[in-house]
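In these records, each integer encodes one residue's backbone shape. Here is one protein:

___
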Amino acid sequence: MIDVFNETIIYRLDYVVLGPQDAVNAQIVDVLPPNVSLIGESLGTATVDNNYQGSGRTALIWNLPPATLPVGTMGSITVTVAETTAGIGENLINTVATSVMIARRRTTITIRTRS
């Protein structure tokens, strides 16, 4: 829990394509907790949706290049946010999901969050 207004929070999303097939058109969506404001992200390619699926929450959406990620591909994205006054004393919970378009089989991308 963070109790300091405007505290900077930096976390890293590590991802790996586990297979069994290559990931095609892989996308990572990071829905930010309420009561934080985005400072930046390391790839510089995220689409920022300030009303993700009508929730009023901000989401960062990355379409991972290249269009096809071979099994075993690994990478990381660093995200920096600041806590706003409304969030002081609250737990911050971050939600991250992946989406992959593939033919016939399920391909898994694992994401680990580190702060």
